[in-house]
Amino acid sequence: MAHMDTAFVFDLDGTLIDSVYQHVLAWQEALDAEGIELSAWRIHRKIGMSGGLFTNMLVRETQLDINPELLGRLRKRHAEAYHRQAGKLRALPGAKELLAHLTGAGIPWTIATSGRMETAAPALEILGVDLERVKVVTRDQVKYAKPDPDLFLTAAERLGVDIQSTIVVGDSIWDTLAAQRARALSVGLLCGGYGEDELQRAGAFRVYEDPADLLRHLDEVGGRR
C-alpha cells in the first residue's frame, strides 16, 4: 500500500493569529457607520465565512435592502477599521513554533483564508510568512470562500498534494464544513471562540486548545516524518 504523506492547510484568523475579535469590532464599526445595528455576537458567529454568505446573513438578520454600493462601502470601512487595530494583533501561542516545526520536518503547509490580502497582510507579517516561499491562498484568488471548498482545494493543488492526505486546521465551523466538502480531514482549535462540541459536530476529528496544543499532539494527526 502506498504511503500518503500528510500536508497541512491552516486558516489564519483565530487559528494562527488572535484577530477574531478585532474583525468583529471592525465589522461592527463599519455597520454602525452605515446605520446598521447588529449585535457583536451575531457578527462573531459569521467570521470566517465568505463575503457572499455574510451578505445573505445581513439581509436575513436586518431585513435591509443590501445593494452592491453598500457592500463595497462596508468592506472598505471594515478594512480601514481593522488596519487601525493592527497593532493589537498577536500570534496565538505556539503558532510560529508550529509552522517552524513543520518546515524543519519537511512537512508541506500553507495558509488559506477567507480574508482578502488587504486584511490578511498584517497577520502574515506577524507570523513572518515569506510570500515568495509560502503559497498563501486568499479570498481574492478563488471564486467562492468557506464553507465552499475552493480555498482548501486550491491550497492543496498549489502544494502539489492530494487533498485527501491534507489536514485542514481551523477555528470555526466554516473551516470544518469546507474541509469536509473538499474531502480533507479537519482539526479544530478552540482559540477562535467556537466550542469543542460545535467543531466536532461540523466534522473536526480532533480538537485542541491552540497551535501550541496541536504541536504537542502533532503525532496524533499524522504530523511526522
UniProtKB/TrEMBL annotation:
UniProt keyword annotations, A-Z: Hydrolase
A single BP term in Gene Ontology: DNA repair
Statement: the UniProt record of this protein carries the keyword Hydrolase: yes
Molecular function per GO: phosphoglycolate phosphatase activity
Any single GO CC term annotated in Swiss-Prot or TrEMBL for this entry: cytosol
NCBIfam families: HAD-SF-IA-v1, HAD-SF-IA-v3
Protein name (Swiss-Prot/TrEMBL): HAD family hydrolase
